[in-house]
Write a structure and sequence with these properties.
By secondary structure, the chain is an alpha+beta fold. The chain has helices spanning 2-16, 44-57, 70-78, 86-100, 176-196, 211-225, 255-269, 273-277, 282-308, 311-315, 332-343, 350-356, 380-395, and strands at 21-22, 61-65, 102-109, 116-122, 127-132, 135-141, 147-151, 156-159, 200-205, 240-246, 319-323. It starts with a helix and ends with a helix.
Length: 396
């Protein structure tokens, strides 16, 4: 879109003229943020934990509240940008957030810079904060080689583990020791397998030889008995006074230690074994959702509202919310019980009930129904007074 090139040229010229300076936080520290060397996303267990959370967040449903927001609703619900549908968009935001503890979202405008026509998640490693004419700007680069500049106040920003820095979340340095243990364990297993296939011997020669002769005899012994020997029989002659086979005991982490390593990962990322493997109960998922997913959904709602609406529009009820139908994570029996309990009490419409069991909506399915034997609760004293008045009128 024209926004990319025009904004890039207009702001890049001012930067090149020396107007810009690196923005420094109030403590005069210039922030540089990189992912953990080795990468929390490069280990099998940590990637699985991140995927479990990101995959759940990608199922959130965006809802745009307010009047005349049909275009925004369609954009958020189906295609936030040219490269991503909504699921990929939310998955990307969540993955970068949990790997880097920071993620930015850049709104893309039309040619007149008046209307948001798309949203794009940005990796913090490809973003730089700059101060131009006393105003803070975000300079960023996309994977496709495109560059852009946008006012910092207009972009979205999610982070976690925010402590010392006023803008960025902290690194994943506390995971370093756990990652190193996981990596050491993986290497130990590989080395143990390799060493187990190697036969090692200690041979004592029965006579004194020069070092050159010892080296030649070693090569001859290996070639004759160990290389290409499929018989399993070792033959030696009178040169050797003794030959012993050596066994190496490779150290590996035991079950308890490995369980503790896994528990460290689960504690850090807020997941459990059952969540990771999809064996969770509805209560386990509700706890996981409320502790790990709902806070991100709330921040997504706040940041998208800020990007898409002005303060005046927000005051008139325009906002964005990200929600999830947690009924979808119930078992089949629990879904049926929930529908039976809520439907005839007027808390679920037919279409909402059908959505829970993954059925398509029907016409006129958005009405609420209630069982007719239910009556309005009333005060006993009022009922007595009413009956007395009725009797008096009848007698008269």
């Amino acid at each position: 879109m024209a926004f990319w090139n025009r904004e890039k040229v207009r702001k890049a010229e001012r930067i090149e003229q020396g107007v810009a300076e690196y923005f420094k936080i109030f403590n005069a520290y210039t922030p540089t943020y990189k992912t953990f060397s080795g990468g929390v996303y490069e280990m099998e267990l940590t990637r699985a934990a991140i995927h479990a959370k990101a995959n759940c967040i990608s199922r959130l449903k965006p809802i745009v509240n307010g009047q005349n927001n049909t275009t925004l609703q369609r954009m958020l619900e189906y295609q936030p940008n040219e490269l991503m549908d909504t699921k990929k968009y939310l998955y990307r935001i969540a993955t970068v957030l949990f790997v880097c503890n920071n993620v930015f979202i850049a709104p893309m405008y039309d040619d007149y810079r008046q209307k948001v026509v798309g949203l794009y998640p940005l990796h913090p490693d490809k973003c730089t904060l700059k101060k131009i004419d006393g105003k803070l700007w975000l300079v960023y680069e996309l994977e496709q080689g495109l560059q852009g500049v946008i006012e910092f106040e207009k972009c979205g920003r999610l982070n976690q583990f925010q402590n010392k820095d006023e803008i960025f979340g902290a690194s994943n340095a506390p995971m370093n020791s756990t990652l190193q243990m996981m990596n050491a364990q993986d290497q130990a297993i590989v080395n143990a397998v390799q060493n187990s296939s190697n036969i090692k011997f200690l041979a004592k020669l029965g006579q004194s030889l020069r070092q050159d002769d010892v080296d030649k005899e070693r090569e001859r012994f290996v070639k004759s008995n160990l290389t290409g020997n499929d018989s399993g029989v070792l033959l030696i002659d009178a040169k050797y006074a003794d030959v012993k086979q050596l066994s190496s005991n490779q150290f590996t982490v035991d079950d308890k230690q490995m369980a503790q390593i896994r528990e460290n990962v689960f504690d850090y990322f807020g997941v459990s074994e059952n969540i990771l493997q999809g064996h969770y109960t509805s209560d386990e998922f509700n706890s996981f959702y409320e502790s790990q997913i709902e806070p991100v959904a709330l921040e997504l709602s706040l940041q998208h509202t800020k990007m898409l609406f002005t303060d005046h529009e927000v005051a008139f009820g325009n906002n964005v919310t990200f929600t999830a139908n947690r009924f979808n994570f119930l078992s089949a029996g629990e879904k049926v019980t929930m529908i039976q309990t809520l439907f005839d009490r007027g808390l679920l419409t037919p279409n909402e009930a059908r959505e829970i069991i993954n059925m398509s909506p029907i016409d006129n399915g958005d009405n609420f129904y209630i069982r007719k034997e239910y009556v309005e609760n009333y005060n006993e004293e009022d009922s007595t007074d009413g009956n007395t008045e009725g009797q008096d009128e009848t007698e008269e």
